[in-house]
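Tutorial sheet, problem 5. The two components below are modelled jointly, 592 residues in total.
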Amino acid sequence: MEIDKLESLRWDLRQDCVDIIMAGGGGHIGGDMSVIDALMVLYENHLRITPETVDDPDRDRFVLSKGHAMEAYYAVLCHEGFLDLDDVKARFSKFKSPYIGHPNNKLCGIEMNSGSLGHGLPVAVGMALAAKMDGRNYRTYVFMGDGELAEGSVWEGAMSGGNFELDNLCALVDRNRLQISGSTEDVMKQDSQEERWAAFGWNVLSVPGNDIRALDAAFSLAEETKGKPTVIIANTTKGFGSPVMENKASWHHHLPNTEEYAQITADFAAHKEECHA
Amino acid sequence: MPNKIANKQAICDVLMEAATTDKDVCVLCSDSRGSASLTPFFDKYPEQAIEVGIAEQDLVGIAAGLASCGKKPFAASPASFLTTRSYEQAKVDCAYSDTNVKLIGISGGISYGALGMSHHSAQDIAAMSAIPNMRVYLPSDRFQTAKLIRALLKDEKPAYVRVGRNAVEDIYTEDSCPFEMDKATWLKEGTDIAIVATGELVRPALDAAALLEAKGISATVLDMYCVKPLDEEAVVKAATNAKAVLTVEEHSPYGGLGARVAQTVASSCPRLVENLSLPDAPVVTGTSKEVFSYYGLDAEGIAASAEKLLGKAAK
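Model answer (structure tokens):
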């Protein structure tokens, strides 16, 4: 999809995401808002998978390691035709629902379950290795949060991804600099991400993470990179899209009240309007 | 001539045989290919062998990723580390995501006798059994191990297999190794006491039955290689036909074979059940043989416990 159309679509997806959260009575809204642009760009312009090819051995693989951004993922999966938005909204977090707060691989288009942090990268390394072993040309993508990077298993995966020179693997770090307890740098220092990943043998692309064009270009660059895996450090804003929730750690998992919801919805609409101005 | 082939060697032999015709069969090690007896596999099938270094979480996560793409990974690492360090990967990436990963815990139990509690896995049955969708197998000898691995190659569900470090005395033979998946093997049928054993303590349990027989005590011996799913039907049948039940395992007293058998017997055919296991403590230093003897897990100890239990049951 063209960039200008994505610039508009991102606000519709955010609205869907917030509506899913409101319908379910909870969700990780802050991280949803920071990562949803990257999810949209990946699914629209790069990830080679459709609802018809979910069992195709040559499909691209995606793992949402920061599984708590599930509402953003639902919004994108619904838009791409894997799931039905009305059904998700009607049943999200409800009794016996398959639409839980983290990825559920019983649902169409979802490869792996996650939830506990630090699992996605080693799994993605395995997927990328399988492609190399089988001589298939599919690519594997994994999205992580920045607070998640405190998990040691992430760096085991980083080590093996570099070691096996998996140029068919692309990781993305949603670097919004906030986690539940506050700033990532206050909780456990994460800078410099660029230096850390480079030291593990990765191609590092550091981009403004809520910039559609920059994200699109970064995924393209990753596809062209040979001999090493790529990590995109997406420097995002937690809660991106409305001042009501932007850069507020308390919005990691916050359910908007009626006034907040109205303001957020108005802000999204105004942003969308700007796209068409 | 005592057997010199360890159960882990039997695993390697079967996997090499399978890898010849199935390129999806692959093995992963965490700097453990030598101790897992998988070096021949790495040498012969380098394209199907993955070394991850000393990184058990990565080992299991990568195996799950491979499995999700149709590969048939066997991830081998010392049971002590595999079932603790990468426990969450076993739970989330294998069992919860339902990936076809076979976890091979080598040098299980107190195989690494003198290396201390860090290297012992007296908790693995309890830990792995508690994960929904995870099966737990402890084969008793090399022939049964081979049959189990061949069966596991044919299914697509996660499983944990624990084997010891050293060669153990044969129970079966190449030509005579009755095996049905998830069904205990009846080694002996008796009427006084039912001995239910698993893993590499099945052999001493069978030897104990011979000692008991010499004293006129008739024992059933069940080779319960399948701890989960437990062959409850066999347990109930064996218990029903006996006055008491004795379980034998190289494990902590908590949450292992003994606990599962006691649950089954208590709810279906109440009998006295006693669990012979390792203690709830760091075990004494020594070789496996010395340690088993010390805790009454050798043939003589098992026979003595059986006699004592029958005495209690008679009161």
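Marking note: The interface with chain B takes residues 57, 61, 105, 111-116, 118-119, 121-131, 133-134, 140, 152-153, 156-157, 159-160, 163 of chain A (CB under 8 Å). Full credit if you identified this.
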